[in-house]
Amino acid sequence: MVDDSPLVARDADHPRDPVAATADRFQRLVEQAPDGIVISRQGLVLYANAAALHLLGYERPDELVGQPMAVFLDGAALATMRERLQHMRETGHRLPPHEYPAKRRDGSPMTAEITSIFIDYDGGPAVLAFARDVTDRARTRAQLEQAERLAALGRMAAGVAHEVNNPLAYMLLTVEALTRQLAAARVDAGLLDLCADLRHGVDRIATIARDLRVYARHEDELYGSVDLAIVLQQSVRLAAHELRPRIELTVEHGALPEVSGVPTRLEQVFVNLLLNAGHAIADERSDGKVAVRARVGAREVIVEVEDNGAGIPAENIDRAFDPFFTTRAAHMGMGLGLGICRDIVARLGGSISVASEVGHATTMTVTLPIAAPVDSSLVARGAPAAQRATPAPVRRRILVIDDEPLIASIVSATLGEVHDVVVVTRAADGLARVLDDGAFDLVLCDLMMPGMSGMDLYDEVARRRPGMERRFAFLTGGAYTARSQGFLERIANARLMKPFSSQALVELVDAAATLR
């Protein structure tokens, strides 16, 4: 134990020994140093100045002196420190400061930047360590690194989504064409149900392909009134295969008003919450329970997903929605689910919160705004039903340019019954058709193609046949480069995100007259 009193007492009657005076001044400087100073030998604390005591949450030197350094550094941090000291001893070179995860006396975490050197102290070799609290700096750096990871992840996911959305576009249009043909043939209703399930699956895959992009760029989605009861029913059906039979799953709610949102996004939120609830319950338990409850508030619907799992420690509650934060094993996910759920609900005008008690229960609460009622007077003021018949579609001449032959083919088949459709699979061929035969009412053009892209084609047409570029509409699986993002922001042309429905495609073509 080291006494923090002056090394040599003052004596007003006798001159001071110069060596003692120097030692006295040195100790005072050490005690008043703004950085923590700790002297240790063989892992035991021999001395700690006032700043070190304050840094670690101690009040008196005797509370820390004589303690092992393991009281504030864990095993991994101590191993790293020993390796660095051994390297310095072998090479004779001083190493730069290093950040160590540490803990204060009350157990709260911190990050300490420590620089160590060898000294002789009290008759033997020792280690002198200078320490400062860099917790805020480390937290800020971690946030910046996380932002960079999210941006990189968004760019990567956008590229993946582009590749996935191309076959999905073909699948979606094909399923819809098959559904129309089966309905016209008046086949068994079970086949139509299978087509509906397949369509729903394609929609879900398309949603999943865009999930990670939520942190890079928000895409336009079709918001509207959603039957929440159906969303909850579908979510429970999708999650039940993983939860049952080991977990009792219950749903309780009365009549629910429609809420504002996107059906597939809300389904994504509740499926994620249900699966998280299931993961919180240990596999070996036989009394696991997950309950879904919904009730109506003044202007919102409140949905609770409650489990009787392990619970969330208090120190992790505030981080539950942070991207990449997870307490699961590495193979169980990246910790993005709750962060995505929070962003989805926030964009819908709602909120999500968590309450938990370790060892008892966790409740995730989602609040969603009730959809605005439809003004029935708008319908009453419309024309009589007999006069509101849909006008016959105008036959148009359309050029389809897409390097995916299957997409070009199904787009042509979808539009071909009403319109004259010409298909090419190379942008250069499309340019030749536009320049040689400009009598196209609409050009449906893929954005990203090998060789000449849709962007290059657009700019070339604008240069060589001004005005014709206004008849372009772009079909894209995602703008995942800075150039493509800037291009879509620069132009006012219509665009359809793949996969798109046949209805969306037809509506785009029907609006083509405004492009001339």
Task: Output the strand order for the largest sheet.
Answer: 2-1-5-4-3
Which whole number gives the mean pLDDT? 81
Residue share in β-strands: 15-25%
Largest sheet: 5 strands, antiparallel
Q: Which of globular, elongated, flat, extended, rod-shaped describes the shape?
A: elongated
Summarize the structure.
The protein is an alpha/beta fold and 516 residues long. It has 15 helices and 17 strands.
Plain-language structure description:
The protein is elongated and about 110 Å long. Helix 6 packs parallel to helix 7. A 5-stranded antiparallel β-sheet has the order 2-1-5-4-3. The chain is 41% helix and 21% strand. Residues 1-12, 214-220, 328-335 and 374-389 have low confidence and may be disordered. With 516 residues, it is α/β, with parallel strands linked by helices.
Keywords:
516 residues; alpha/beta; five-stranded antiparallel beta sheet; five-stranded mixed beta sheet; 15 helices; 21% strand
Please outline the helices and strands.
Blueprint: H1 18-32, E1 36-41, E2 44-48, H2 50-56, H3 75-91, E3 98-103, E4 109-121, E5 124-133, H4 135-184, H5 189-209, E6 224-226, H6 228-243, E7 247-252, E8 259-261, H7 263-279, E9 288-296, E10 300-307, H8 314-317, H9 337-347, E11 351-357, E12 361-369, H10 376-380, E13 397-401, H11 405-416, E14 420-424, H12 427-436, E15 442-446, H13 454-464, E16 472-476, H14 482-490, E17 495-497, H15 502-510
Parallel strand pairs: 7-9, 13-14, 13-15, 15-16, 16-17
Antiparallel strand pairs: 1-2, 1-5, 3-4, 4-5, 6-8, 9-10, 10-12, 11-12
Helix pairs in contact: 4-5, 4-11, 6-7, 7-9, 12-13
